[in-house]
Amino acid sequence: MRELIKKNYSILNWKLIIKMLYNICDGLSAIHDKNYHHRDFHSGNILNSIHNNTIKSVISDFGLCSTANQSSADQSSADKSLYGVLPFVAPEVLRGGEFTKSADIYGFGMLMLEIISGKAPFVDRDYDLHLVLAICEGERPPIPEYTPEPYATLMEHCWDPIPTNRPTTDELYGQIVKWETVICKFEHSDSQVATKIKIKEAFSHEREEKWKVQLAKLATNSCPLKKSQNMLASKKLDCPKQLTEAKDVEMKTNNYSMLYTL
C-alpha cells in the first residue's frame, strides 16, 4: 500500500482514499460476516491498483485466518503463536489475550493512519519490547494536523484500548459510506443537509492540499526503515512472554529497592 501512495501521490485525493477505505472495509466486513477474523491485518496485506482514476483494493494473505468461535482449547500450539506486524497488533493481543474481530478493527485504524500520514505507524521507533509496553499502556501514533475531524475520530475509535468499544465493520462501513456519498457522489438531496455540509467542510480542499504536500515530501525524501521495521512481512512475536518477563524484572527491582530503603 505504501508503494502505491509513493508512486501515485500526485493523483491521490480524498475521493480515491475514501474509495480505498470503502473497498477494504467491504472486504473485512465479508470476512467478519462469515464469522472469521483475518488475524494479520496490515498494510502489506492490502493489494491496490489505480487505473483511469479508479482505485481497487483487496485484502490478501488469509494464512492465519480463523473462525471467530474457535476456542483456545481447539487451537494447536502453533495456531496460538502470535504473528503480525507490531503496530497493527491490538494491545490485548500483545498481552496474550484472545483474538477477536475487534483486533482486526484496531489494525484497520492503523491502516487509516498510514493512508493519511503516508508513513508506517511509529516510523520513528524500533519495533521492540519498549514499543510493545508503550502500546499496551495506551500510546498511539500522532495524527497529522491536516486530518479531517471525522476521519481522526473514526481512527481513534478503532484504537480504543477496550476492544468492545471499537466499531464493528457495519459501523465502519456506515461511516465511510457517508463520506463517499458526500465526497465522491455528493447527492443533492435535502436529507441530512447539515451533516453533509459538515463532512464537506471537514474534507476541505485546503486539508487535501496539505496532505498531498506531505505525500510529495515523503515520496522524494523517504526515510529508510529501521532494521526492526519490516512492514511487508509478518513475523512471530513473543510479546506476551516478553511482557511477563519484563514485569517480573520490574517487580524484583521494586522489591529490591524497598529492601534497600529499609
Automatic annotation (TrEMBL):
Keywords: Kinase, Transferase
Domain Protein kinase intervals: 1-183
Example GO molecular function: ATP binding
Pfam families attached to this UniProt entry: PK_Tyr_Ser-Thr
Record bears the keyword Kinase: yes
InterPro entries documented for this protein: Kinase-like_dom_sf, Prot_kinase_dom, Ser-Thr/Tyr_kinase_cat_dom, TKL_Ser/Thr_kinase
Official protein name in the record: Kinase-like protein
